[in-house]
Structure formats: structure tokens, C-alpha cells
Amino acid sequence: MADPQRTVANSMGTETFCRLQEKIEHLKRHKIQNKFLNSEIYQLTKLWRNSSEEEKGLLMKCAYLEAKNCQIESKYLVVLRRLQESKGLDSSQQEMVKRLIEDSLQGDKKDGFKLNPVSEYDDYGFKTIPDYEVEDVKLLAKIQALEIRSNNLRNNEMVDKPLRTRWANYLASRPLDQLAPSPELKGLIRCGIPVEYREQVWRWIVRTRTQVSRKRNPNRYQELRKHCEVSEHLASRQIRLDLHRTLTSNKHFSSPTSDAVQKLQRILLAFSWQNPTIGYCQGLNRLAAIALLVLKDEEDAFWCLVAVVEIIMPQDYYSKTLTASQADQRVFRDFLAEKMPRLTAHFKEHSIDHSLITFNWFLVVFVESLVSDILHRVWDALLYEGTKVIFRYALALFKYNEEDILKIHDNLEMYQYLRFFTKTISDGR
């Protein structure tokens, strides 16, 4: 008591001790609260995961049910179409079938909800469902729309997602500019390149195929562009005429003043000077247009055209005589006779020259003959493997519809069917 300093020190020590005790108590309460909150977060996360899995399962179930419904509706319309063509119905039955068809064609306008409706255009600007003015063909378009929707719904989970995962895993360990030919890459490309990777993979393939020419003259395209500005090629007029006949069902080429049409014109004019032997051949506009839609860049599309015409296709494929193109048709005729003798005999019996149809398939690599999704898969394989895939796809198309063709016994009807049937195939698998 006689020492005031010690008294003050003891007092300060007591206050410090009390404050520490308060802090400890506060930390204990905070720890208990944290433990409770962590438990709540864990429970909520668990509930969210369960809910997410349940939602995913329900969406898959809905997609499956809608796909199944589309298949049933498609079969129903096919039956209606066959009844419409039948000659054994009386007038009242024909009227009933007509009303049912009209109701079906109006069905989409009445339906308020679609889980996964088919958009008007695909990723490359092609109309997913063609516009038809003839009522009978409108019914075919509706059937095709249902099949596309059904295939999209089923393929999304079973095919597209696993394929995207395989591509993502493959490309994760190797930059696109360092890809190398391999059996694994070949297998992936045959399955189809996903939209998000197609532009980059095509660019790598094209640059690999044209690297010798590009290294020799890196500024080749710019030089050709300048040459076009000062000199007009003899093919210029034909190129301008064909521009407006190019991919008329694609929104990017629907206007003569569109950016895509202007780019296409410059590419074709540059190529006419790049390859004076060919200059320009009808069909090159379609090849260049597909390259432009996928690669987007004008110069890359030009080199893609060079790769197809000068490197992948045989010499004289696009010459004035079309010698190699005609030779391929003879080779294909032999293949068809070997693989499908019944169909070959059927064509011979009814005097059908299938080369009137298949010649164009080969010349423009199925452009405007196949739906966009299948067309791009064909081109994926063509760019990587070469022309052998054209023969294989052509044979596959005939095999896919062989039984339907064998049922037709009228010469004119068969030609009409052969011009049309490839566009009715909607399942890329």
C-alpha cells in the first residue's frame, strides 16, 4: 500500500486479464457460430447438389420424352402422307386425311411450349428447315423438322456432350498449331468436329496442306488482290453472275450487298489469277462459300479453296474437260455395282444414269445436297483424309435409302426422288 506504482501495475494487469478473458469468450462464441454456419453451408450445398442432379435428371427425362413424342408424331405424319397418296380411299376419307394434315401443319403455331425448339438457322446460317410452297412437300418439311428435333434432343446427351469432352481432353494438352496427324485425331475427326473447335481445326489442316506455297510467298493473297484491282479476269462476269446463286438458303448470302458475298467475290477473283489453267469453274463458288462460313477469315478461306482444288482433288477435276471428275463417276459406278448389286440392277432395269445426280455430289462435295450438320462432317473428313471419303459417303447415302429406291418403278419418279432424298436424311450418326 505504501508503493503506488505496484498498485497501478496490479490494476493494469487485472484489466488486461479481463480483456483477454472477454476476447477468449468472444472467440469461443465465434467458433461455435462458425461451426454452426459451416454445418448450414454443408447442408445447403448438399441440398443444392441433390436439387441440381434431380433437375438434370428431369431435364434429360423431358428431353427423352419430347424426342419420343417427336418420333411418334413423325411416324403419324408419314402414315398420313401414305394415306394421302393412296388411291383406295373414297372422297370422305380423303377429305378427313386432308383435314388431319392441315391440323398437323398448323400444330406448331398452336403449341405454346417447346423444351428445345429447332431454331430457324444453325450455327453457320443455314435454314434448319427448308421453306416449301407445295403443300405435299410442306408435310415432308414438317416430318423433317420433327426428326431434327428428335435427333438433337437424343444426341445432345448421348453423342454431343461425350464428343465435346473427348475433344476438350485431346486439345487440352496440345495447342492447335502443334497438332500432328495421328489415328486418335483421325478417329475424332470422323466423329465430327464440334462447332466451337471446327474453325481452329480446319485452319490447322488447311495451313498444313498449303504450307509449302505459303512459305514460298507469304503475301500471295494480298498480291492477287492488288492484281485483281488493276486487271480484270475473263471469268469476272461469270463469277459475278454466280455470286447470287450461291447458298441461297443461307442468311449470310441472302443479300447481294452482304459482307460474305463481297468476300466471296474477292476470293474467287483471286483464285482465277492464282490458277490460270482453271480460272473459274461453276461449283468453285460453293466450295469457297463453305470455307468462308467456317473459317470466317477471307485469306484462310482462299487457302482452303486452294487446298481442295489444287491439293486434295485430282488434277483436271475442275478443268474445262472435267476429265478427272468423269473418271471418278466411272470408278463410283464400279463401287456401287460391287457394294449394292440389287440397286445397280434396279437402275439398269429402269434406265437410270445415277451419275446425273452423283456428278454434282463429287464436284461440289455435297454442298446443297446434305443438311448442314452432315455436310460439315463430310468436309471435316475430306480436308483431313482426302477424296476417298467422298466415295464412302456417296455409297452410304445410297445404302441408307436403298430399300426406298428399290420400291420405285417409275423412271421420272425415281429421278425426282434421287434429286431430293439426300436432304431428308437428318441423323448425322
UniProtKB/TrEMBL annotation:
Q: Which Pfam families match?
A: RabGAP-TBC
Q: Cite the InterPro entries for this sequence.
A: Rab-GAP-TBC_dom, Rab-GAP_TBC_sf, Rab_GAP_TBC_domain
Q: PROSITE patterns recorded for this chain? A: TBC_RABGAP
Q: Out of the domains of life, which is the source? A: Eukaryota
Domain Rab-GAP TBC: where? 192-386
Name the PANTHER family on file: RAB GTPASE-ACTIVATING PROTEIN 1-LIKE, TBC1 DOMAIN FAMILY MEMBER 2B
Q: What is this protein called?
A: TBC1 domain family member 2A-like isoform X2
Q: What organism is this sequence from?
A: Huso huso
